[in-house]
Amino acid sequence: MQEETKIIKVREALHLVKDPEIDSVSVVDLGMVEVVELSDEGVIIKMLPTFMGCPALEIIKKNVENEIASLALFKRVEVLFIYQPPWTSDRITAKGREHLKEFGIAPPPILDDAGEWHVDCPYCGSTYTTIDNIFGPTACRSILYCKGCKNPFEAMKPVSTMM
Amino acid sequence: MGREEKSMNITSVEEAQKDTSYYKALTALLYQLADDDFIIAYRGSEWLGLAPHIEEDVAFSSINQDTMGHAAMYYQLLEDLGEGDMDALAHARKATERVNAVLLEKVNGSGTYLTEPKYDWAYTVVRHYFYTQSKKIKVESLKNSSYEPLKHVAVKVNMELYYHLLHWRTWFKQLCSANGDAKSRMKAAIDKVLEEFDGVLALGPSGDAITQYRLIEKESELRKRFVAEMASMFEKLNMVFPESMGMKSGNGRKGEHTKDLDDALLTLSEVYRSNPAAVW
User: Residue B108: which residues within 8 A CB-CB, separation 6 or more?
Assistant: First the structure.
């Protein structure tokens, strides 16, 4: 198989690996995959960790290894976490942002020029929301409340190097 | 200091290992950064289920999880440099080998989380706020470190730290502006934390080498920035920052520690010691 075809196959397979805690969004749509490259014996996938203390990282690593191994294309599959460039919440793709909403999580807000941000309700779209807790049930989420549809909901925290 | 050192940029483990004195200074600093975050994250985690209200429980445990993640990154850098397995570095080192500041190892209060924890929230807010502010200053400086892998870690830590600092600043302001019990307890906590705070700002016996190799800026410079931040916060609260700080219970950077650390290590390494091969 051509090298390019192999890399395409790997990228396709990576779309099947979901965040273990948000099973509608793939690691690709989360913006976690930085590099896919072929090595002498196999393939190296370099990924960006979202939050460092996140216990899902090891599970994601294992799931990526298993998914790529099941392609039966490589003798060796290596998954590495790298810190450069840093993962930021604007790496989440448009598709990823839609799938987050389906899961009931508002996508990370885009910071305006003043560094301020606002989150709309992922259920009803209302802009009439309040933040209950910047921190949430996982490192990457905040807890909010929609005064429109009276639902509590979660949002991905904005993370930027500008902070 | 030569011109060469000013612009030095060490990009790989191999390069760092080549120069023995650079390696020594680098690892000395990394152990401080790792051990500080590790033990304060542990002390924070002891609050789980005991924080003043449920939202604080969520926030504080998230902060502790992040902070433990920061410690893990620094231990990982040490492992990469050949210092040994990172789990062993975190769990199996004796108190005398650790270089965390003494302030960060101290118990949250009397009792344990299992039996009658009489933890002091004022002390916790002040300790965490002051520590987080000083960490912010260090991390900003590390973004220009001569060791490139450390620079990258600093960028990562800094993004998460933003939320931590916001959190502790809010608590600090609110409790210091409240009336009655809160104010006097905060004042007592500030005195208690400052008695040990020199230990947090200290860069230890290798401090000169650490700054000469441009791993981080001078201790005196970092201290100046810390005092300036504090002075401005205290002024906003109509308080005066008492600039005198100490190292009452010893210099953790030299491996001097209290019984509190021995007790903590015994508890936190229990699972690790029962099965060092366990996957975390």
Answer: B43, B46, B47, B117, B119, B120, B123, B124
